[in-house]
Amino acid sequence: WYTIAFPLTIKGDLFPIHTQSSQVITEEMVDLIVEMCDQSLSKKIENQLFSFKTGGYYVEKGIFVPTRIKDPNVLTAFNKVLKPGVRFLDLGSGDGRVVFLASLFGATSTGIEFDEDMFNSSLRARGKLSNRFDLSKTELIRGDFFDADFSGYDVIYYFMSGSFEEKRLEDKLAKELKQGAVLVGYIEHEAFKELLSVGRAGARKRAARAA
Predict the structure, then answer these.
(1) What pLDDT is attached to residue 114?
(2) Burial 100-128 (b: 16+ CB within 10 A, else e)
(3) Which residue has the higher pLDDT, 69 or 188?
(4) What b/e sequence results for 138-158 when a residue is b if at least 16 CB atoms lie within 10 Å of its CB, and e otherwise?
(5) Scanning 49, 114, 157, 172, which has its CA 20 to 30 A from the CA of 146?
């Protein structure tokens, strides 16, 4: 397996995105996901999330910070590894925006979120977006992703500090990622330093314990 870590360097116009499926993703489609997810947040989450003092929404098992899904790094990485038939898992899926985005690339997309308020936000967002997009291949699960079996997924996404037990998560990933699987990491600190390769999409580095 290999990893894709951010930041990357992407140049030129990105939209429209011609995916590996028949779907063409426009900037307006991504903006709509962001808008509906933002609108679906409860006031409690919103007040803490957008506070300069907190920098994120603190829950029992980690910190939720929304992925900037219009980031060219995210979109380029997803277009490289997501296509019909790929099973995608978002670890700590929050309001679901990454799960919904992954489905636009054709992947069968699953998100696991432990916090009840965040999970309910994702359900509200999916309800709003279902009128615009086919989200039949998305699944939102309320639970602890440490209880999940990662070996059945082709692409796993993780945002920094989504878990307060990152060493435990690193060990689980190294043990369970199947051959050929991809770990996409939106990570800005040294967590997973044994797993993550630094640089451009597609850079490969095997962790010793994954052999």
Answers:
(1) 97
(2) bbbbbbbbbbbbbbbbeebbbbbebbbee
(3) 69
(4) bebbbeebeebebeebbbbbb
(5) 49
Parallel, antiparallel or unpaired: strands 87-91 and 17-18: unpaired
DSSP state of 6: S
Terminal alpha carbon distance of the chain: 10
The mean per-residue pLDDT over the stretch 42-46 comes to 93
DSSP code at position 107: -
Residues 163-193 as b/e (b if ≥16 CB within 10 A, e otherwise) read beebeebbebbbebbeeebbbbbbbeeebbe
| Candidate from 56-60, 159-163, 173-177, 198-202 with smallest mean pLDDT | 198-202
Q: What is the distance between the alpha carbons of residues 68 and 75, in angstroms, rounded to a whole number?
A: 10
Q: Nearest Cα to 104, choosing from 31, 19, 10?
A: 19
Q: What is the mean pLDDT of residues 104-130?
A: 98
Q: Which pLDDT score, from 0 to 100, does residue 52 have? A: 59
